[in-house]
Amino acid sequence: MHFINSILALFIVLLYQISIKNDHLRDLREFWSYINGSENFTIKFMDETIKSSLLILPNVEACKKGSKYLIVIISRTESFSIRNAIRDTWLNSKNANILRNGFIVAYFLVGIKYDDSTIMMKIIDESMKYNDLIVTSLTDTYDTLTFKVYTAMYFKQAYCKYVRYYIKVDDDVVIDLDRLDQQANSFSNLAHIYGAIRYNDRVIRRRMDK
């Protein structure tokens, strides 16, 4: 009797696992059916070349209406609350005058979770609600971060090439947009790159180090 009960329990577990797998496959099919981009491009570095795609595109029309700044925010796929916090704070027009005149267009760039259909379905919902996600075919891992930065630059050249300023940040950064605009207006029209200079730093040559 104990043996029969064990077999029945194992059978129920297998059925449950099959059900979960079928739900996962169904959600993945729904995700792929939603894809509105599927634009393929190649990421090239001196030591590596990979194929990539833009799977979901945001409202790129905003880039064609004379926007002054393009901000691309690199974000982890599952960081839904962080993206919402950004939308509610420094990307909210109540907190920055410059956002009210359309001079700034901002998008979040995320990778894909091939093994988590629940997260990807939530990404679809988020994209439909806010229309500000750039979803790439890159797996959402730390190792692909450099490729995501490349993808952000590719997106800028492909869809927002005429903006005057391009800003790439991570989702743990806060920007005072009005103050940024004041500083930018004080610059000359010459091409510049601004940032901090670190002197006498040694190049890290560990293969696994970003």
From TrEMBL:
<keyword id="KW-0808">Transferase</keyword>
<keyword id="KW-0328">Glycosyltransferase</keyword>
<dbReference type="InterPro" id="IPR002659">
    <property type="entry name" value="Glyco_trans_31"/>
</dbReference>
<keyword id="KW-0732">Signal</keyword>
<dbReference type="GO" id="GO:0016758">
    <property type="term" value="F:hexosyltransferase activity"/>
</dbReference>
<protein>
    <recommendedName>
        <fullName>Hexosyltransferase</fullName>
        <ecNumber>2.4.1.-</ecNumber>
    </recommendedName>
</protein>
<dbReference type="GO" id="GO:0006493">
    <property type="term" value="P:protein O-linked glycosylation"/>
</dbReference>
<keyword id="KW-0333">Golgi apparatus</keyword>
<keyword id="KW-0472">Membrane</keyword>
<feature type="signal peptide">
    <location>
        <begin position="1"/>
        <end position="17"/>
    </location>
</feature>
<comment type="similarity">
    <text>Belongs to the glycosyltransferase 31 family.</text>
</comment>
<dbReference type="Pfam" id="PF01762">
    <property type="entry name" value="Galactosyl_T"/>
</dbReference>
<keyword id="KW-0735">Signal-anchor</keyword>
<dbReference type="GO" id="GO:0000139">
    <property type="term" value="C:Golgi membrane"/>
</dbReference>
<keyword id="KW-0812">Transmembrane</keyword>
<keyword id="KW-1133">Transmembrane helix</keyword>
